[in-house]
Amino acid sequence: MTDKHLLLAGGGHAQVEVLRQWAERPLAGWRVTLLTRDAHSPYSGMLPGVAAGLYRPGDALIDIRALAARAGAALLVDSVLGLDPAARLLRRQGGAPIHYDLLSLNTGATPDLGQVAGAAAHAVPLKPIDALLPRLAALEAEARPGQTIAVVGAGAAGTEMALALAARLGPRGVRLTLVAGVAGLLPGLPAGFRRRARAALAEAAIALLEGEEVAEVTEAGLGFRRRAALRADTVLWATGAAPADWLAESGLARDARGFLLVEPTLQAVGQPAIFAAGDVASFRDAALPKAGAVAVRQGAVLARNLRAAAEGRALEAYRPQRDWLILLATGDGRAIGTRNGLTFAGRWVWWWKDRIDRRFMARYRVSAQTRGERG
Questions:
Q1: Are strands 271-276 and 281-283 parallel, antiparallel or unpaired?
Q2: For the segment 93-143, what is each residue's pLDDT rounded down to a tens digit?
Q3: Tens-place pLDDT, residues 168-180
Q4: Rounded to whole angstroms, how far apart are CA atoms 44 and 11?
Q5: What's the predicted TM-score (pTM) here?
Q6: Secondary structure, 3-state, the chain
Q7: Closest by Cα among 68, 70, 66, 98 to 82
Q8: Which regions in the chain score pLDDT beneath 50?
C-alpha cells in the first residue's frame, strides 16, 4: 500500500513546529516532504540582534536540513511556482510537480514594492527574511563615514532594524533616518511605548521623518510631494507585505489584498486538504499583523490539525490572542516592552527577550548525537 503524502511548502516559523512534532511522533502510513527556498530558516525575532552585532548570524538560523532529517522528511530546496488544488499538485521551479494528499503552506510574504514609483528598482526589502542576512552583511561591508541609510516604515520591524543598524554602523559614521509616513511612529501601540521608542531613536541619533508618505525612490534617495527630497545611499523597505504572485493563479479564495483566506482551523476556504499559517494566510474576521509572533503561535495548532486531518479526527480552531507581548530591542543591550497596555523598558527587558528567543531556538536545535542516530 502506497503511503499518503504530507507536503510542507515553506520553512517558516509555523512549519518548523510541524517538523518538530512530527519528529517526536511520526504517523504511520504517511511520508513527509518539505519544500523550502533555503536549508536554513532565519528566526525573525533575533535578526535585529544580528544586525546590531549582539548575535552571530548562525545564532538566528534554524538548521532545516537537520530538522527535516530528524522528522524523517525529504527535503527539497526549491521555490513554489504554482498550485493546482483540483489535481492536488504543487508546481515548483526546479523539477516536476509534486502530488500531495495534505498540503501545508508557510511560504511567507513578499515586499510590497509596487505601490511607490522606483521602490522595486532602488529599495532593499526586509522581506522575505530568508534573504535578509546577506543584505545585512553587504551593508556592513559597504559601511563608510558619511554614508546615509533610510529605513522606510516605522512599524516594529522598521523601527527595530533602524535602531540595530545605528548601534552597529553609527560608530562607523553612518547616518540613519527612519521614515514613518502619515501613520507616524509605531502606530497602534500604546503611547508610553511610542514615547520610549522616540527617546531611543533620539539617543541613537536617528532622524525621524513623519507626516508624509514617500512618493518615489530614486538612485539618490527618497522623493516626497510636499517636502524636500531625502538623500540616501541605501533605502531599506520595511513597510507593507504582498502575497506571492502564484496565489492569484491558484483559484483559492483570497482576501482583498490577495492573501490566502483560511478558516479558524487554518484550512484554506473551500479546500480542506490545504492548510496555511503565517504571513501567507489571512482570516475573514481577524486582521492579524504579518509578524513572526503570529506564525509561532499558529505552529502548534497547525501541527495538531495536520495530524488530526491525517487521522480523520476533528480539528481545533486557532484563537488569536487579544493582546500579546511585544518586545522591541533598541540595539544597545536594552529593550522596550508592552503587554495589556503596560509599558516597560531597560536592560532587564532585553535579558527577558534574549531568554525567550534563545529558548525558542533551542526547541529546534538538532544535536550532533541526534543527527548521528537518525543517520
A1: unpaired
A2: 999 999 999 999 998 887 788 889 999 999 988 876 667 778 888 888 888
A3: 999 999 999 999 9
A4: 13
A5: 0.89
A6: CCCEEEEEECCCHHHHHHHHHHHHCCCCCEEEEEEECCCEEECHHHHHHHHHCCCCHHHHEEEHHHHHHHCCCEEEECCEEEEECCCCEEEECCEEEEECCEEEECCCCEECCCCCECHHHHEEECCCHHHHHHHHHHHHHHCCCCCEEEEECCCHHHHHHHHHHHHHHHHHCCEEEEEEECCCCCCCCCHHHHHHHHHHHHHCCCEEEECCCCCEEECCEEECCCCCCEECCEEEECCCEECCHHHHCCCCCECCCCCEEECCCCEECCEEEEEECHHHEEECCCCCCCCHHHHHHHHHHHHHHHHHHHHCCCCCCCCCCCCCCEEEECCCCCEEEEECCEEEEEHHHHHHHHHHHHHHHHHCCCCHHHHHHHC
A7: 98
A8: 1, 368-375
Residue bearing cell 525612490: 217
Length of the chain counted residue by residue? 375
